[in-house]
């Protein structure tokens, strides 16, 4: 009985499938991405589930309970762009992110799904100065400029911690 001799195969480089990002609309005019490694969950909740809290920064709409955890509900459009989310809405699109031990729920206009990014990030020099600290950069995808947000900068934002 002959034993086959196995010869090593040359290493095949892996196909670059890109990094995974959650795609969403901050407001009607601003599409954005957040690395999925920071995203725990996305959900839609009625606005009545958010309990307003007095003496908080304007971008913090209040608290809500999710799976026996109390989370801050932050209006991301107001925090980053100084344009509040539509107050007449009956429900909020929320993405729950975690940076280290800090969970935070961000209210956005609409969640669009998960996308893969293979393009290199471009620097964000032309964005408003208030938005710059929260950006990793931007990419062009299907004729659309997508802002790539920095989860750590959002979680550590002075507007959330100076109250």
From TrEMBL:
Question: Which Pfam families does UniProt cross-reference here?
Answer: CheW
Taken from the UniProt entry, a GO cellular component term is: cytosol
Q: What is this protein called?
A: Chemotaxis protein CheW
Looking up Gene3D superfamilies in the UniProt record yields: CheA-289, Domain 4 (2.40.50.180)
Q: Do you know which PROSITE patterns this protein is assigned to?
A: CHEW
| Top-level taxon of origin | Bacteria
Query: One GO BP annotation here?
Result: signal transduction
Q: Where is the CheW-like domain?
A: 18-160
Q: Which PANTHER family match?
A: CHEMOTAXIS PROTEIN CHEW, CHEMOTAXIS SENSOR HISTIDINE KINASE-RELATED
